[in-house]
Design goal:
single chain, membrane, DUF1294 domain-containing protein, mainly alpha, DUF1294, transmembrane
């Protein structure tokens, strides 16, 4: 199988996990339960779940007032795009 199939599968899975974790964190915030650490959310974003997490954050209005997330995740996405371009198209 071509390598891009593995990369696409990985990105689908990690984005699904990032979406679920973001929704769980929002739910826990509403119920005053133990939250997902911000570092864990940023870790998921950095390892490929950034697009799913950003879209979910906007959709459910979660962490949209935190500069760390509203600036950091788009920076992560930009770095991921540049890295992917460099790795796959150069």
């Amino acid at each position: 199988m071509p390598a891009y199939i593995y990369w696409c599968s990985y990105l689908i899975i990690i984005n699904f996990i990032a979406i679920v974790v973001t929704i769980v964190d929002k739910h826990n915030a509403k119920k005053h339960r133990r939250r997902v650490p911000e570092d864990a959310l940023l870790f998921l974003a950095a390892f490929g779940g950034s697009v799913g997490m950003l879209l979910t954050m906007y959709a459910i209005r979660h962490k949209t007032h935190h500069k760390k997330f509203m600036f950091g995740i788009p920076v992560i996405i930009t770095l991921q795009i540049v890295t992917a371009y460099y790795l796959f198209f150069r």
